Fold these 2 entries.
Entry 1:
Amino acid sequence: MIPPLLDVDHIYCGYQQKTILENITFQILHSELVSIIGPNGSGKTTLLKTISRLIKPHNGTIRLNGINIQKLPLNQLAQQMAVVSQIVEPIYISVESYVLMGRLPYFKKFQFFESKADIHIAENCMKRIGVWDIRHALMNELSDGQRQLAAIARAMAQEPILLLLDEPTAHLDIAHQIQILNLIKKMNRELDITVLMIIHDLNLACEYSDRLILLKNGEIKQMGEPEHVISYQTIEEVFDTLVIVNENPLSGKPCVFLVTDNHLKKINP
Amino acid sequence: MNQRSYFRSTIYIVIFTVCCCIVMMVSLCIGSIRVPITRIFDIWLNGPGSPEYSILFSIRMPRIILGFAIGGSLSLAGTILQGIFRNPLVEPYTLGISGGASLGVCLNIIFKLYESIGILAYPLSGFLGAFIVIICVYSFSLKRNTLNTQSMLLAGVMISFIASSLVMLLMAISTSEDLQNIVFWIMGSLEEPNSKLIFFTVFSSICGLLMSYLFCSDLNAFFIGEDDAFHLGIHVERTKRILFLVASGLTGFCVAVSGIIGFVGLIVPHFIRIVVTLDHRILLICSFLGGAIFLIICDTIARTVISPLELPVGVITGIIGGCAFILAMSKKQVRL
Amino acid sequence: MYNKIYMAYNKIYMAIGLLLLCSLIQGQCLAKQGQTYPERIISLSPIITENIYLLGADSKLIANTFYCVLPEAAQKKEKIGTLIDVNLEKIIHLKPDLILATELAKAKQIKLLKKMGIRIVQYPKATTYDDMCTQFLDLADLIGKRMEAERIITSAKKYVLDIYHRVSFLPKKRIFFQIGTKPLHTVNNQSFMNDYILFSGGINIASNESSGIYSRENVIKNNPEIIFIASMGIASDKEKDVWMSFPTLDAAIHNRIYIIDSVSTCSVTPVSFVNALKKIAQYVHPEAFQSN
């Protein structure tokens, strides 16, 4: 039995005295692409912050490859886990320098400058993600989508085994959304990188994820493959909204259709 | 950063070092008595005895060395603080350190502590005042083990106001001799008779540079946000605390020794950022040297422009610094 | 009150006696020792400059401050700065063997100069006229003009005694001596200017104050009969108007508020003190000087 890559064990976490997440337990296996879905305020970002060690859980342990993440030195943690935030700040720094920062966890004690190997790795990442052509541009000159790509390139430069993403498609148009998710899926399949991401769009979540974790009010409501998690009853219960769930004719994955007030009038005149 | 950028940055460091040496030599020659460069070596060889030797090596040289140390320290402190707070208006004095030092020296002058301890009472009282303020600002902004930068700025500004008001209160009830003493100290001066103190200032400035250089990558990482820096393996809290103490300590020493010389910590880092780079691996060194060059030039102007009278060096740093900065801002783009 | 004046009276007499005695002895000693006196003197105070000219040693004065404007010849000397801030390089270049300063000089600069081995003598503020005279004699000692100094002091003190004689048995006037505004500044008994009031037959209402800062309310409360205001440009005229506006103020009722020249009263040598004292005494007790 291969041990899980990420083992979240009965954690209770939140900010200061308030507990937002209660008794969260799940595992993520190697090479999985898992999405966390749920309504606003359900604790998705809190969960991600706790896994990335920004917040310390009140109770419970999180283990990465069997080791408690609280016991790992910070730079070792960064060598294994990379985080892409929701908002990438438009700062006065070239894409190249930004991506090179991903090599910081590998700097030795008195090392201040990147080695040739570091530069080579960053170059590969930029080429693979597709930002090599804009490597001299400043981050504040780029569009949201391009910045998001640069952030992913930086995360990849960390050579992680686990990639955490907080709503990578939040501010993007549909073309860019698909581009980013295709890229993430490619990383997951080709480079064997485990991905845990928060995503709002249920359809995209179903299309790209191996498993879904559905959160509501700080608890895991459902966990499993998209077919098992997404049903109209679950959506109505968790999101408090009527939907129709059908099968995507191209992929066979569940697909969620909206039900608006007008539709209801048609059904129930 | 590719090879070409590194090469460019190394060139900048070399240029700044050379400029620094040139400025120091020129400053040695200029004064109410002009000494040509060619004669300096001769005078030095002939040893003490001639008035020229006294002027060059007992008056000008200590001033230049002190200008190097203090200009460098203030500029370095400004760079560090702007890096931690990610706020361009932060400088060593925004955190109330100068207010605390002024208050310390005021109390020393009014209660005549220098009569019991001697002339060292000035730098000691200045540093004590600065230190107390540093502790206050630090404790106010420690919330659940996190150093909250917003609270720090607020606390610093408030303490600054309180300290200035107290200084004014003391000035209002002081005798005219004490008042003059206080005002002159506040105006800032690089004249210092105690050579041990000068040596100590130089030593602490170099130490400050070395200590802060250990965190140059961390400062670069802060640029992309504290959370993201944490995810890159940076000990954000620990780094913030250490750097804050380094910057405040450097400022405290400078204010204690030479009074209040403003603008150096605000203007020089910005200038270097615009002209050279945002990368702290180069920025810290260039900032230090830039600050040294700037202060030595300002001090030379201050003591020659209306010779034999002298202007307070803080006046010159303000005027020249402000104008030069506006000029630079209107021209270049920023690049890393 | 009478005791104090009597003591001052006595002091002056004793001083003159002692002076005559000492001068006889010292003059002999010094002449025998053949002591060398400084030849290159720098003065850091207008009062010290004036004193040097008074003693006839101005040929030895090589530099002074920008504020040394009296006598007129002093303006032509080399300038090295102000009372507080001096140009060290210039001083060293001039190679002085004695620097005379007040306690206002910057401590750091004094220390630097001492480090170079230059002799510096600092004079604190004179607390009484007697103190001023003692400092004058010390200065004279330093530059080898003892005899001239004694002559000058003896003569000056005689004048002072003369003035005092005329007024000593007249009723004492309560006097307020204003030397600054914003904040209101007066002289207490730690300043030699207090002696202007004492020797002209008056009582300083602020004599026992610990600092020179005084409140207008206190002045009204103590109701002086005479107010002197040291000239401060137009500010002194405004001050006079302010005082005149108080209907209960004795000095205002009898129109005895006088503006006097600040330079000739505040910045004085033992000799110019006498001239200033005469003017003040004439204001305080005009009846004592009518025969002249």
Entry 2:
Amino acid sequence: MSGWIWLAPAASFLGAGLSYLGAWVGTRQREGQGRREEWGRRFTSALEAIKGEDPRARFLGRTLLADLASSELASPEERQLADHLLNEEARFDPHGSDLRLVLPGPELDDTDFIEDDDDNDTDGDSERGPA
Amino acid sequence: MSDTTIPKTVRVSRDQVSAARALIRLRGGVDKVDPVIAKVASARPGKAAKHTKAS
């Protein structure tokens, strides 16, 4: 008989615990969603910066893109997208060389890679890699 | 004749170097990228290189 005395307080305690757990899970979900939305905004900003005219902004955009894609918030598809974009950009630039057909090998080891310091090189002595 | 013959000296743009470095950063190391990307990322600055350009 005396065991029934504890039933109401125990049920109340259990209900309060479940309410707290539900609120905690909801808060965590909202926080996760907020972080993910902020991540998405930054990812979009990074992509926009890469397309821009300012070389400094493009550099920062790529750095930001690499960091965001390394984040735990990035999905495998988004990580793959960033990887593919950076890979293509490194291999081909209308103002640089087209390295998409270059394969690793002894010939590559003997090749000297030089960073162009002038996007508007007009002296005509640049070698732009294989066509 | 191959279309992919690589000149002794290849000029790459700053954007290409920057993208190669970002890719290495993303993948977590230079050993995780293609050797071509590694070479692009370690390209020497142009001004210093112009005087030593291979013929």
